[in-house]
Structures are given as C-alpha cells and as structure tokens.
Amino acid sequence: MTVRTLTTRELNRALLGRQLLLGREALPVSEVIGRLAGLQAQVPDAPYVGLWSRLPDFRPDELARMVATGRAVRLTLMRGTIHLVTVEDCLTMQPLFHPMIVRRMSTTQHGKDLGQVALRDVVAEGQRLLGERSMSRIELGTLLAQRWPGVPPASLGFVATAASPTLQVPPRGVWRQASGPVWAPIETFVGRRLADPLPIADLIRRYLAAFGPASVADIGRWSGLTGLGPVVRQLRPELRVFRGPTGTELFDIEDGRFPDPETAAPPRFLGEYDNVLLSHADRSRIMAVQELPGIPGGYGASEGTVLIDGMLGAIWTVDRDDGTIGMTVTPYESLSPDDERAVAVEGEALLRFIDPMASGFTVRFAAAGRPYNPWAAAGRRRRGQP
Question: Which of 15, 48, 95, 217 would be 197's cystine partner, CB 3.0–4.6 Å?
Fold first, then answer.
C-alpha cells in the first residue's frame, strides 16, 4: 500500500485545526482543556491567553472559577512541567506520569543533593506534613531539614513536591491573582482518591487527536515518556500511517482533523510556552527554526508569541503607563501591510481582554529580527557553538 506523504502546510493546518487555532469554536472550557490533553501552565495566567485565542467570547472568570473550586488543577505532568488539567484527568494522568517524574527527579541537582537520603522517605514525610496544611516549597523544605539537616532545604522541598502526588492550590492559577506556589496532596485537596493510571494507549490516542499526525519521537517529546514504540506498534492496525516531508513515519487516529491546507490562518496570540510550540520533536510544522524565543516567567498574560499564517512569526510584550495598556510586537521578518493590520486588530483585542478597564489600548511594531534568547545562547556556549 502506498503511504501518502504530507506537506508541511498540511501538517500545519491539521495542527492548527485540532488546536482550535484556525477558527475559534464555541465549546465548554472543561471540554477544551480535556480535548487538548491539558494546557501548559508553568506561567499561571498563560492558559487564559491560550483559551482566549481558541474560544469565542472567552471570559477569564470561567476558568478562574474552575481553578478556585478545584474542577481544574495545576500539577506536574507531561515533560515534568506544570500543566492545567481537569480534575478527572488529574486523577488518572498523575499516576501515569509519576514514575517518569521520579526518574527525572533523581537526575536533577535537587535529587543528587539528597545524597544517601532515600527519595521515597523524603516524599513520604513531605506528604505527611502537607496533609496537615498546604505550604510552599520553602516552608516544607525548612521543616524537612529538621529531620535531614545535611540536605539543602530547597532541594528537600522541591523533591517532596515534584516527586509526589501533589498540586498547586488556589489562588495560584486564578486570573490576575499574584500568588506564589503553595502545595497540597492531590487527594486531600480534591477529596477524591487517585485512580488507576491512564493507559498509555489512550494517552497516545488523545495526543494524536490534539497534535497529530505525529511520530513516535513527537509523542515522546510531548509526554516525556520513553518506550512508546512498542505501544504504537500495537495500535498500528487502528491508526492511519503517513510520511512527513522528510520521510519520517507519522501516525494518526482514524478520524483526525484535516482542514484544507489552503485554509487561511488568522493571527493568533499565544501565552508563554503554549503547548502548540512544545509538543513535537520536529517543530517545522509550526516553526521555521527549532529554537523557541526566550520568554521569562512571571504570572503570565504579559509576554508571548504570535502565529502569523500559522507559523511562529513574532513575539509580543505588554507595558502599562498611567492607566493605558500597550503592546509591542516584534516580528521575525517584515510583515505585509495586510498581516500587520490583522496582527494589530488581534493584539488590541487581547489587550482589551487582559485589562478591559484600561483607558487606552495601543499596539506598536518593533523592527523585524529574531529576539535574543539568553537561554539558547547559554546552551550553545556550553556546547561550544557560536
């Protein structure tokens, strides 16, 4: 049987369609979070921008109520990073990703700082203490250091939360409520027991529905899991098989979305570290280069990236002055007049979402050029590259 080779454009439009970035769709917030298999939430307010770009008339209080009431929760999952998921997904996804997170933790400096102290003992004691009251990593680490005085408190607090079934409690993650991360055991906070782990085959199906067609390496990059090849081979009879532009074997669910590749892709503003940019080993379907811009953390809704004609094409930053709110858009390459107008309209709409009470809204364009990425530059220096 001849296997069809997909173009970069086809892959791009398939990804955008599945991510609700071609056209906003009127869906419940909880359904979208589940459909996308969670939202990257390392920066607390970033998911709000992501949902605004995907849903018509999205209001931040819709998600804020879900976070405040525990119907959507923030915890360490895919790639060992913080994601926002529904509570139902939390109860099955955390047990699936937990072994991977523990393995990764043992190789970090925090894990190495434990020395001869058993990680499982630190986790068990951390769970006991957090069961009494929620606390920050600094607070928890200070208490744990009373038992293990030879280990840095920061490492104890980090390991005890990252390598255990914990989550970040509100108001962290509630729109525009600046709050440091405070941790609690999942079962204590949600009042429900963790379930059996989500089967890896089901996780792969959900990933493909949201990000496919994709290779085994792509699934591994998104999830952080290893040993996925045998599972994909077992699923192969039910999957569609394609080739990518470079010949890589790609897999997809039978009814995966395939918009017309000529479908227009309007500008879309993304928050910090949106999963659409992070979830493939080969990012060429969404980025002309494999290197992401360096975007510092914070609470979110202040910096991000812009998709132009479906591809990563600019960064945006917000500034405030005397009651007004403004945005600077820095494109990677010079924009056509039509693209600049469309980006300006979408950018002003985002500003009105971020601060509807501002007295003025301004979108400015900086000179085109790739922004300096201090993290990537440091990595190149470590590898001896220019």
Answer: 95
CA distance 24 to 259: 14
Structural contact between residues 53 and 90, judged by C-beta atoms closer than 8 angstroms? no
Strand partners, 311: 308
Supply 68's token pair. 């405040």
pLDDT of residue 288: 86
* 253 vs 238: CA distance, rounded Å: 7
Q: What is the pLDDT of residue 381?
A: 46
Write the DSSP string, 197-242.
PPPHHHHHHHHHHHH-SB-HHHHHHHH-----HHHHHHHGGGSEEE
Dump pLDDT digits (tens) for 274-323: 999 999 999 999 998 766 766 556 677 888 999 999 999 999 999 999 99
Share of the chain above pLDDT 90, in %: 88
What is the value of pTM for the model shown?
Answer: 0.93
Residue among 115, 46, 108, 124 at smallest CA distance from 297: 46
Sorted by where each begins, the domain ranges of the chain are 287-382
Select 287-382's CATH number: 3.40.50, 3.90.980, 1.10.3470, 3.30.70: 3.30.70
Contact 168, 75 (CB under 8 A): yes
The pLDDT tens digits for 245-281 are 999 999 999 999 999 999 999 999 999 889 999 999 9
Q: For the chain, list the strands marked E by DSSP.
A: 39-40, 72-76, 82-86, 166-168, 183-185, 240-243, 249-252, 268-270, 303-308, 311-321, 324-331, 360-365
When pLDDT is cut at 50, 70 and 90, the band that residue 69 belongs to is very high
The helices-and-strands tally (H runs, E runs) of the chain is 15, 12
Q: For the chain, what is the mean pLDDT?
A: 93
